[in-house]
Amino acid sequence: MGKIRILTRDDRPFHDRVEAGRCMADALGYLSKQEIIVLGIPRGGVVVANEIARGLGAELDVILTRKLGAPGNPELAIGAVSETGELILDKHLAALVGADEEYIQREKERQLAEIERLVRSYRVRKAKVKLHGKVVVLTDDGVATGSTIIAAIQAVRHEKPSQLIVGLPVGPESAIRKLANLADEVICFRVPPYFSAVGQFYEVFGQTSDEEVLKILG
Fold first, then answer.
1. Cα–Cα distance between 214 and 125 in angstroms, integer?
2. CB 27 within 8 A of CB 7
3. How far apart are CA 133 and CA 131, in angstroms?
4. 71-75, 114-118, 146-150, 162-166: which is most confident
5. Positive or negative: CA dihedral 109, 114, 117, 119
6. What are 127-152's pLDDT values in tens digits?
7. Tens digits of per-residue pLDDT, 172-207?
8. Looking at residue 204, what is its pLDDT?
9. CA distances from 142 to 34, 178, 194 (A)
10. What is the pTM for the complete model shown?
11. Spatial distance between the Cα atoms of 217 and 98, rounded to a whole number of angstroms
């Protein structure tokens, strides 16, 4: 299991993703003298990643993963798929919500099509950064079940970075411990005692647009 650093256990909200990213940059300041790649999960995670990259003087890129939504409840992640096509599935949850093999395959294909659209959009603006031998910081605006970021971790691992650190503004302890089984280190700024959704811990949590992401990458 990788190292876990929990900075606070309070439930105060961040103002927005920019503030969350700046807090994470401070928490990751010990990395500032190394060659680092910061990867954000679009779209909200890219705003956080941008502030971390600025704070550390690091290079910024995106990692493209999409969650698989439950039948009738697309916000509930039963799994995720990565840019490499790798499927991560919570089989127990999928069975509970009635997601059979046909549904899972259909949802996977739908999300892969969206990833292909994002590749055409984002990679034209910024070519994919090579991760081999680099220290990689992977981030999002928060974590709930962990499915999306697990897919991202496994995609990054394929490229053999020298170190993989997951840095998150907020998440439940159960998810943080799950991620520590896959990353070298997990740092979470806030791990509140009661967690229902990531948006609960932001005063401003609107949708981030593709245009905003492209502006950051540009």
1. 7
2. yes
3. 6
4. 162-166
5. negative
6. 889 999 999 999 999 999 888 888 88
7. 999 999 999 999 999 999 999 999 999 999 999 999
8. 98
9. 25, 14, 14
10. 0.87
11. 39
Give the CA angle between residues 176, 171, 111 to the nearest 5°. Answer: 90
How big is the chain by its Cα radius of gyration, in Å? 16
Predicted confidence (pLDDT) per residue in 112-124, tens digit:
999 998 888 888 8
166 touches 185 (CB < 8 A): yes
Determine the pLDDT at residue 216.
94
CATH code 3.40.50.2020 for 3-64+128-217:
yes
SS3 for the chain, per residue? CCEEEEEECCCCCECCHHHHHHHHHHHCHHHCCCCEEEEECCCHHHHHHHHHHHHHCCEEEECCEEEEEECCEEEEEEEEEECCCCEEECHHHHHHCCCCHHHHHHHHHHHHHHHHHHHHHHHHHCCCCCCCCCEEEEECCCCCCCHHHHHHHHHHHCCCCCEEEEEEEECCHHHHHHHHCCCCEEEEEECCCCCCCHHHHECCCCCCCHHHHHHHHC
